[in-house]
Write a structure and sequence with these properties.
single chain; about 55 residues; 2 helices; elongated
């Protein structure tokens, strides 16, 4: 991809993109935080089980 084509596509993207509303942002934030909590809980459970199995 040539440099000029890249800048044309960036310009087109900037025309189409829009700033999210407050509601859209809060929904995305809640989903992201929920994902982080779920992954943290799974990691904690796996670590706890591995530690319990080591002591046996």
């Amino acid at each position: 991809m040539k440099l000029i084509e890249f800048f044309k596509s960036v310009k087109m993207l900037m025309k189409v993109a829009k700033k999210p509303s407050r509601a859209e942002f809060t929904v995305a934030l809640k989903i992201t935080l929920l994902g982080i909590v779920v992954l943290g809980a799974i990691a904690f459970i796996v670590r706890f089980v591995a530690l319990a199995l080591q002591t046996i």
